[in-house]
Amino acid sequence: MINNEEFQDEIGNNHISTNAQNPVRKDAFDITDEEKIEKIKKDVENILQTLGMDLTDDSLKGTPNRVAKMFVKEIFGGLNPDKKPKASTFENNYKYGEMLVEKNITLYSTCEHHLLPIIGRAHVAYISNGRVIGLSKMNRIVEHYAKRPQVQERLTMQIVQELQQALGTEDVACVIDAKHLCVNSRGIKDIESSTVTSEFGGKFKDPQTKREFLDYIKLETKF
């Protein structure tokens, strides 16, 4: 019989998501970013000291503060709903009715199981239902949801759901192809493998439309 710790390790080592939403507590934003930085700074200091590192060394002196600021302000900044980009849309005055694809969006995220980087590309597409969105907003939506402890499947769905809501259409698709350093640099240590996830909404569920999108992004993976 698997005990609780073994079960949790099994989930983490196999990169299994247990929640379709980021598991954030209700009191997550009861304290300020500055207060979070101070608390995390002390935790990082404790980790490094426990590992036997000399924090009086000039190279390490500022590391706890740098890591704390990086966690709060940068790589996990997407947890803060106040930092969510405004997904402004505009009327499709030029009546463009074909697929719009923004491909090769650089993606940096963090695996929530081992807190190691996820690095890859996101490919996003939609078909206008009367509204259009600025190209840079698509990149910003990807960036916002990536800046969290994540699993790739959830991230893919969140990007699609956010664009569906902003554009008022189900006709949105996203494919992510990314390397997970928790696979590449530890565990199985397979440096060649990458993970591909997809979410297809509305017209993109049609095989012909789906194939057109995949042809645009030159992805050979079959779905």
From TrEMBL:
Q: Which NCBIfam families match?
A: folE, PRK09347.1-1, PRK09347.1-2, PRK09347.1-3
Provide the species name: Flavobacterium taihuense
* Keywords for this protein: GTP-binding, Hydrolase, Metal-binding, Nucleotide-binding, One-carbon metabolism, Zinc
Gene name linked to the record: folE
Q: What is this protein called?
A: GTP cyclohydrolase 1
Please state every residue range assigned to the domain named GTP cyclohydrolase I. Answer: 40-217
Provide the binding site for Zn(2+). 111, 114, 182
EC number of the protein: 3.5.4.16
Spell out the PROSITE patterns in the cross-references. GTP_CYCLOHYDROL_1_1, GTP_CYCLOHYDROL_1_2
Which segments cross the bilayer?
A: none
Annotated pathway: Cofactor biosynthesis; 7,8-dihydroneopterin triphosphate biosynthesis; 7,8-dihydroneopterin triphosphate from GTP: step 1/1
Per its record, the protein catalyses:
GTP + H2O = 7,8-dihydroneopterin 3'-triphosphate + formate + H(+)
Q: Which PANTHER family match?
A: GTP CYCLOHYDROLASE 1, GTP CYCLOHYDROLASE I
Output the Gene Ontology terms for molecular function. Answer: GTP cyclohydrolase I activity
What interactions and quaternary structure are annotated? Answer: Homopolymer.
Q: Which InterPro entries match?
A: GTP_CycHdrlase_I (IPR001474), GTP_CycHdrlase_I_CS (IPR018234), GTP_CycHdrlase_I_dom (IPR020602)
